[in-house]
């Protein structure tokens, strides 16, 4: 009986692992490992700003290329990135 209970417990725990918060669209760690400093402003289709949180201590700015949808992390300290974010904030309906 003990092996059956043990196996059942393992199966239940494994199923619970797959339904965690991270699977529901909330990242539990930083997404940006490297950050682009070179200006790519005209190639950007969208910008996503992730404020610092308990899961990632840094502000993350993720740009999506207009043509191919590829995502790239931008350096929030780069002067051109600050200009892009400030311009986005002035747009109606913008939310970080």
UniProtKB/TrEMBL annotation:
Quote one Gene Ontology molecular function term: CXCR chemokine receptor binding
The family database entries (InterPro entries) matched by this protein are listed as: Chemokine_b/g/d (IPR039809), Chemokine_CXC (IPR001089), Chemokine_IL8-like_dom (IPR001811), CXC_Chemokine_domain (IPR033899), Interleukin_8-like_sf (IPR036048)
Q: Give the UniProt record's GO annotations in the biological process aspect.
A: cellular response to lipopolysaccharide; chemokine-mediated signaling pathway; immune response; inflammatory response; neutrophil chemotaxis
- Domain (Chemokine interleukin-8-like) spans 27-88
Its signal peptide is 1-20
Give the family per the record: Belongs to the intercrine alpha (chemokine CxC) family.
Protein role = Ligand for cxcr3.2. Chemotactic for macrophages.
Predominantly, its location class is secreted
Q: Which GO terms describe its cellular component?
A: extracellular space
Q: Which UniProt keywords apply?
A: Cytokine, Secreted, Signal
Keyword Secreted set for record: yes
Q: Does the keyword GTP-binding apply?
A: no
Q: What is this protein called?
A: Chemokine interleukin-8-like domain-containing protein
Task: Give the organism, scientific name.
Answer: Oryzias latipes (Japanese rice fish)
- What's the superkingdom here? Eukaryota
Which CDD domains does the entry link to?
Chemokine_CXC (cd00273)
Q: Per its UniProt record, what PANTHER family does this chain match?
A: C-X-C MOTIF CHEMOKINE 9 (PTHR12015:SF210), SMALL INDUCIBLE CYTOKINE A (PTHR12015)
Localized where? Answer: Secreted
């Amino acid at each position: 009986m003990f092996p059956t209970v043990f196996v059942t417990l393992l199966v239940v725990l494994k199923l619970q692992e797959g339904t965690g918060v991270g699977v529901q669209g909330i990242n539990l760690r930083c997404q940006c490992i490297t950050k682009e400093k070179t200006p790519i402003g005209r190639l950007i289709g969208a910008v996503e700003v992730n404020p610092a949180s308990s899961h990632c201590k840094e502000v993350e700015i993720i740009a999506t290329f207009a043509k191919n949808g590829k995502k790239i992390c931008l350096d929030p300290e780069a002067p051109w990135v600050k200009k892009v974010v400030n311009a986005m904030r002035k747009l109606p309906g913008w939310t970080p």
